[in-house]
Amino acid sequence: MGKKRKYRRTPLSAQIRMLLKNHSLGQIDEPYIRSLSHEELIKLSTKLLADLKQAREQLNQGPSNSSRPPSSQAPWDKGESEEAEDDPNSAESFSDEQDSSSDQDKAQDGVEGSTTQRRTANGKVGKPKGSPGYGRTQRVAITRAIDHRVACCEICERDAQKHTEQRPWTAYSTLDIEVGEGEALGLRVTHTQHIFYEMSCECGHTTRQTPHRGEADELWDGIELSEWRLVGPMLCALIIALTYRSRMSRARVQEFLREWLGLELSIGTLQRCIEESARAAAPVEEQLIDEVLNSERLHADETPHKEHGQPRWLWVFVSATTVLFYVGYRSKEILDNLLGETYCGWLMSDGYKVYRAMAKRLRCWAHLQRKARGLEESLSVEGRRFGKQTTTFLKTLMQAIYQAREGPAEDLTPFFKEQLDRFRAACERARGSSHEKTHALAVEFLNDWEAIFRVLTHPHLPLTNNEAERALRHWVILRRISYGTRTPQGSRAFALLASIIDTCRKRKASPWRYLAEVIDRGRRGEELPALPAAH
Question: What is the pLDDT along the chain (535 residues), one digit of tens a residue?
Fold first, then answer.
């Protein structure tokens, strides 16, 4: 029996018989095109057009429209044929009527209305072709209309102002809120209809103005950035505020919007708003990382987190003006990927051993005090003695540090050299204790001796890691309510939005206005705004 032949995909250049070979195409550039005569340019353009159409047709082939086997299609591409039917930028999905907000709302909610896709009788994802499906039943009056007209012909670049005949070819509507200022306080729901036009030029080409659609991103598979959205930027920001800041479930957010704003939105739409907002804000993470790396002092901590029931850790890095969250494993890799060898500032942390690689490390005294206090209350005579000695020694040093901060900075190490030597000797003795917690605390002091008592040399540095612990507290409560996240995308969205929210709050700026601007620009494909300046 012979070996089974594997299907090998033939390169695209070999599948298509092009008019222009690669050798010829490599010689064509803009100066060469400008040097051609009119007739030569027409001949070249005809060949290029034929090759482009043939290549596009070949790229669009798949198991559903050609003889290619199903194995030739990547797993993540399967189902694209069904999704293409709901593509808002395809010609078939657009209405020719100007006043088509209700139909567009149905199409929009069909895309965003549910995160759980149905399977048809033949096993394919999505509703059967021609079936009525589920659409929006709520009708909201249009409060304003925005015309999106063609600026110039896409081919000949003739100014569109010379052509007064432009006709609408599609439209979509967006629900949003306006936040009142000054005397006009409160929230106002808006329903904006966006009308897109097309123009037939004298050159014979018809140019259409279309909503912007972002490119696909492997890290955000299935989450699209597009202007064609039912929920506007500020309403997205409100949904995030209710979900993350007010710690409300999706069902309670849905109830709040219905009872207080009169808006009927599906739970799937709410989830889609959060995911899309996170993708729009993803580039902001680079700004956060740069500011963390450039900070003089950093507080770091980590706490357990659940991702689909699996153990993960929520990491936080806090500087004077920036907060950065990560969800991942509790390993040295997280620290190396973020800080590596590039961070030169002070790092305050707890006793987790992965932090020991940092040269300018500080240890939180609050952790040590709590452990010493626990030893004082233990049933071991040896443990109580070592716990009381540790507590008394740390209190003495703390009083000296606080006094030193009121005057000129000076090194306190020489003044306490004798006491430090005695306490180190006590730690060495306790190291051999049979009492587990006494032994553990003594080893912790000896392993982190330099990091613990470095503050005596620099009294202005912090003694505790309260900044990081306070940053985690709110999100720990949210984790207990929501039981964590369900997917890697959900974890990344959670960490990104939490970082932006807490960074803006630390800078005395509104995170919701900033997020609304980020979402708006991200949907339009524009450069995102910088983080609010620190006050």
Answer: 444 444 344 444 444 577 888 878 888 888 888 988 888 889 889 988 888 888 887 777 766 665 555 555 655 455 444 444 444 444 444 433 333 333 334 333 333 333 344 555 555 656 677 776 666 788 889 999 999 999 888 887 888 776 668 899 999 999 999 998 877 788 999 999 999 999 888 877 888 999 999 888 888 888 989 999 999 999 999 999 999 999 999 999 999 999 999 999 999 999 999 999 999 999 999 999 999 999 999 999 999 999 999 999 999 999 999 999 999 998 888 888 888 878 899 999 998 888 988 889 999 999 999 999 999 998 889 999 999 999 999 999 999 999 998 877 788 888 999 999 999 999 999 999 999 999 999 999 999 999 999 999 999 999 999 999 999 999 999 999 999 999 999 999 999 999 999 999 999 999 999 999 999 999 999 999 999 998 7
Residue 454, amino acid: R
Tokens representing residue 7 in the block: 């299907």
Q: Which amino acid is at 201?
A: C
Q: What is the DSSP string of 284-315?
A: HHHHHHHHHHT-SEEEEEEEEEEETTEEEEEE
Determine the Cα–Cα distance for residues 290 and 293; give it in Å rounded to an integer: 5
Order of all β-strands in the sheet with 297-307: 323-328, 310-318, 297-307, 346-349, 361-363
Is 496 in contact with 506 (CB distance < 8 Å)? Answer: no
The residues spanned by each domain of the chain are 94-112+137-211, 365-458
Picking from 148, 112, 88, 101, the residue whose alpha carbon sits closest to that of residue 231 is: 112
Angle between helices 488-506 and 267-281 (to 10 degrees): 70
Angle, CA of 179, 183 and 185, to the nearest 5°? 30
